[in-house]
Amino acid sequence: xxxxLTRNYVLKLIVDFFGIAVGAVIAAFAIEEFLVPCTILDGGxxxxxxxxxxxxxxxxxxxxxxxxxxxxxxxTRKMGKMFxxxxxxxxxxxxxxxxxxxxxKDVTEDYLLAxxxxxxxxxxxxxxxxxxxxxxxxxxxxxxxLNKKFKLxxxxxxxxxxxxxxxxxxxxxGFDRAMYSLLTYFITSKVLDIVESGLEQTKAAxxxxxxxxxxxxxxxxxxxxxxxxxxxxxxxxxxxIVLYCVLTRFEIHExxxxxxxxxxxxxxxxxxxxxxxxxxxxxxGKLKKQDEKKSDKxxxxxxxxxxxxxxETT
Length: 314
Hints:
Elements: H1 7-35, H2 44-56, H3 60-76, H4 81-102, H5 111-131, H6 138-150, H7 154-173, H8 175-195, E1 202-209, H9 212-223, E2 228-234, E3 238-248, H10 252-262, E4 267-272, H11 285-293, H12 299-309
Antiparallel strand pairs: 1-3, 1-4, 2-3
């Protein structure tokens, strides 16, 4: 379904890209003015780039672009197009301002100040980028893809990547740098969660709506998530349909976008999920093929197919 370029949608895109731009600039400032002078690493692609920059003096801005391009290519077919566009925009601006801030005088060379203030500022920047639907680090894209295919938790996957990077950094620059980097990572993660309004790695969304069919269909097609459909009754509003689904923090922005465009009057409650036990049904390659054949089916067959594609299981 093609998105109509309404005035509200265009305005929303402008706000999103502005938020991503602000977040990318803030993150670049934290990296170049606090972390790099003290050889403290961020996680993911940026952490790898900082290591290579210290060893070869190759520009950090160019390294982040080079290493992020493959991840964007990998995610092009699997992630939403707008997510990729926003991420590419954020990464490009992030790399540009790394070069700008590299020419400025460092704010501090005190390790403790660099860890605390660098971690907080970096968390604010990355949090803004994620909040407005983008991403600055390619490893997060890979983590999301692994989550979609193998059900590996996004947060744990990113943490494993980063621990490996910090161990390598410890072997090269000394384990005190690895410990400073790990502490910075945890500070950044906590601040990022605050910026994202307490957003954790896994979320549960409960949606009360009058347009359940279209919303569930869009959630399935755009996020690859099935939903549980329940009947409810409001004290004042009467009978309602309640949708329940589990998703990652990176998909919350897309979910809000879906609901806003389908049923702006829908009531949404998003809560943390500490653990998932049992089968979590997600869109598979087999179901995608069934989707492609739906247009050739009779109305009766299509109705049957819809029931198979949307089991009441999260």
